[in-house]
Write a structure and sequence with these properties.
The protein has 174 residues and is mostly helical. The protein is built from six helices and two strands. The protein has a two-stranded antiparallel sheet.
Length: 174
């Protein structure tokens, strides 16, 4: 679990670095366009294909680790903890199935786009974007691993009735 926590922390740190790089890149483009009448070639394509993809999908493991996805408790807040754990385990199984299917299809797409060396046209040529296709399945794969761990823990708690304290469920990363 500690290795997976390091991966989640590292992917989130990389996403934060991409925020800084994107800010510098876009600022440099604005300065070059405004003062030198010469914008940086491919800024829009690089922002859309690399920076935004990394920002959206690299931290998804961290969000899953923290159980930070949206949970609606309107009808379940009154349930006993054991039944709530059973419901969480069921929801985890459904989520895991969906995410695994998503990862599988995303890997197929990444392989295909790598094979054809996908590129987007920019003002003066083409910018290869196929490497960014690997970010999305990687992010969802790490999410799937966390969902699997959490579903296993929820199912075990529902079956045994041993409900861990909130702090024991998953230690807060340091």
């Amino acid at each position: 679990m500690k290795h997976l926590d390091r991966v989640a922390k590292a992917t989130t740190a990389v996403a934060c670095i991409f925020v800084i790089i994107m800010m510098l890149h876009v600022s440099a483009d604005v300065v070059a366009r405004t003062f030198f009448n010469s914008p940086l070639i491919g800024t829009t394509e690089i922002v859309a294909a690399y920076y935004m993809v990394a920002l959206a999908f690299l931290p998804i493991a961290w969000i899953s680790r923290q159980r930070g996805h949206i949970i609606v408790e309107l009808f379940t807040s009154h349930l006993p903890k054991r039944k709530l754990k059973a419901l969480d385990a069921f929801a985890g199984l459904v989520t895991l199935g969906y995410v695994c299917l998503f990862v599988w299809k995303l890997f197929e797409i990444a392989i295909e786009k790598t094979h054809i060396r996908e590129a987007w046209e920019s003002a003066t040529g083409f910018i290869e974007i196929w490497p960014s296709r690997w970010i999305v399945p990687a992010g969802f794969l790490f999410m799937a691993i966390y969902v699997l761990i959490q579903t296993w823990r929820d199912a075990r708690a529902a079956i045994t009735g041993e409900i861990p304290e909130e702090e024991d469920r998953m230690e807060v990363m340091e």
